[in-house]
Amino acid sequence: MNGSERGNLTPVPLRGNLTPVPLRGNLTPVPLRGNPFIGPRPFVPGEKLYGRDREIAELIDRLHSERIILLHSPSGAGKSSLMQAGLLPELKGSFDIWGPTRVNQEPTPGAVNRYVASANLGFEEAVPERLRRPSETLVEQTLPEYFAGRPRRKRAPRNVLLIFDQFEEVLTVDPLAVAAKRDFFDQLGQLLHSPRIWALFAMREDYLAQLEGGGLELVEDKGGRQATLPLARRVPTHFKNRFRIDLLGLGSAREAMVEPARTGGRDFPAVDRLVRDLATMKVQQPDGHVRPQTGLYVEPVQLQVVCRRLWDAMPADDLSIDAQDLDRFGKVDQALGAYYDESVSDVAGRRDGVERDVREWFDQLITGGGIRGQVPMEAEASGGLANDLIDRLRNTHLVRAEKRAGATWFELAHDRLIEPVRTRNDRWFEDHLGEVQKRAALWDREGRPAGLLMRGEELAEGEHWAAGNQTGLTDMEQRFLADCREAQDATLKEEQQARRIRKWAKAAMVAGALALLASVVAGLKWREAEQRRTEAEDQRTEAEDQRKKIAELILEANRQSGRAQDLEQILEGPLEELVTVRARAEPLERNGQPITQRIGGAKMRLWAITLWIDVPDIRKAEIEAVDYKFPNPTYRPQSKTGEESDSGFAITYTGWGCLDNVELWIRTTAKEPPLRTNVFDQCEALGWSEGIPGTTFE
């Protein structure tokens, strides 16, 4: 069985629930001894690491037999904890242990090689302070020179174990320093040729390919031809002796919860439930649906985060972690969500603008179907976020990198983070973004439909807010406001044209009224001058023509209003009885697909809805405005004045459905109290009384 196989053994299955032993007699419960869970940091020497006994024992055997070992794992599996708290205490009697050291320090003045200097300074930290040499001396030494001159304990074991942690930094720190990397590996290889020196290198497994085939240099052989030489080839064994650890198996995760809790003074009968919760992952089925299933592994960082918060939240006199405690204090989504908030805020330096960029980047890592997505790594920034910020997020174990098809892809570290990330992002955006930003985000997400643009008072309020928040607006939000202004300008031009047409129509009405008056006068004259028949006959003919024109005008006005009242009713009837209301609804689409949103237990379509309030033209001059009110908080603003249109007054808005209680008020030029019409049932007018088209319920 090779090293890779040993590092991938099948996890121990879950065992039955632990039953807490009841207290007998008058024994006093053991007081709590402090929180035994360390939270999101590596274990250090002196802290007990549970759930890794098998890996520790096997790694010790491999190290003794193979001398140079490359320890690798996925991000967050716990390599540093395994070495610090598990491996080093077991090896103190066999080796003089130097390290762990790292190669990530900034260049030091006078340093011949930044990676060598960083390693030397790290090794020197374990030397008693009175024996330490000046850093100016250390940074000038090669690795063999440092080894030869380092002070050693008199009774130290003869063999030395060098430990390099986070060794991938030799590849990521200053990627263009190819000559310095080559020199470092040459010195490392020279040092490791000594049979007295053992070495353990720990690195993320997504950098293995770069260690083997990346960081290549061009060299010339005797024939003048060029070939590539990987950095790993400069070290004895070429890093072929490898040991892999994975995330915690379910049985190991169980032990990592139960044993610390017991040492801290509490039983943990609900451990199996919490293990299954932390191991839950989303698996896409053949039909495309996503179903939660219990996976094979638990993220160690998530385990520590959830258990530490659970422990602190429980009452001090509660000595058993049961299902009720998980429900009250140990909800995984809340613990992971709080950890996500804290980590993102720290990475962003508590700057709202940067934090917004980070949270929007996380939204890219979750698909619309609620599963993990991926963002490809690019130069300097990936998915719009700077790579140095992404590296810091990887250190929090919220994000991991995956190599695939020769490229690096970033994704959430675990499916269990999906809901906490989405919930906390929604809450943060609601609390920190203005209405303009929220509306712009919806507009952009739905494909930028015209129906979601702001107009009128809503746009005026949005522009007033934006004037004081220019530095916080993104390019997309600036584009949204610009499109809103263009749409409103176009609407104003259409309204001006409509007003000109209405003026022409009113002029025609006045001409018709004058013609009617002339016909009446002509009739009187005809009666008074019957004796002048020839002249009167001509007058009667002219009056008859005028009456026909007036009748045609009145008939056209009736036809436009949709009513068939006679002339007396139109001229003298109560104004509120002459008002008619019509409705029309058009579904909004994006790329040929309906725009929908989940509201409560239903998925509803977005509609552009127009109401027309019609009055016969001959009475329209009496109306100054039509006010309307939506007594429903879904529509904003709730009250507004309708815009004058060709056929009367028009109300246009967008919404996720219809309203059955639109209140209409007519204000007249007589300055009398407004006339209220009956409450208008828009749903019935649209024929939606049996349900809104396109709505589905869960």
Number of strands: 29
Low-confidence stretches: 1-29, 214-222
Anisotropy-based shape: elongated
Please state the structural category. Answer: alpha+beta
What integer value in Å does the Rg equal?
40 Å
The largest pleated sheet is described as: 5 strands, parallel
Number of helices: 24
Distance between the termini: 52 Å
Amount of beta strand: 15-25%
In the sheet with the most strands, the strands line up as 2-3-4-1-7
Describe the protein's architecture and organization:
The chain is an alpha+beta fold and 698 residues long. The chain is 42% helix and 18% strand. The strands form ten sheets. It has a five-stranded parallel sheet, sandwiched between helices. A four-stranded antiparallel sheet has the order 17-22-26-25.
Summary keywords:
alpha+beta, five-stranded parallel β-sheet, elongated, single chain, 698 residues, 24 helices, 29 strands, four-stranded antiparallel β-sheet
Tell me briefly what this model is:
The chain is α+β, with helices and mostly antiparallel strands and 698 residues long. Helices cover 42% and strands 18% of the residues. The chain contains 24 helices and 29 strands.
Ordered list of secondary-structure elements with their pairings:
Layout (H helix, E strand, L loop, with lengths): L2 H4 L46 H14 L1 E6 L5 H13 L4 E6 L12 H11 L10 H4 L4 H7 L10 E5 L4 H4 L5 H15 L4 E8 L3 H6 L3 E4 L5 E4 L12 E3 L3 E2 H15 L6 H9 E5 L5 E5 L2 E2 L1 H14 L9 H7 L2 H16 L4 H13 L10 E2 L4 E2 L2 E2 H9 L3 E6 L2 E6 L5 H15 L2 H11 L10 H12 L7 H54 L4 H29 L5 H6 L7 E8 L1 E2 L2 E2 L1 E4 L2 E4 L1 E8 L2 H4 L2 E7 L9 E3 L1 E3 L2 E8 L7 E6 L6 E2 L5 H4 L10 E2 L1
Parallel strand pairs: 1-4, 1-7, 2-3, 3-4
Antiparallel strand pairs: 5-6, 8-11, 9-10, 12-16, 13-14, 15-16, 17-22, 18-19, 20-21, 21-29, 22-26, 23-24, 23-27, 25-26, 27-28
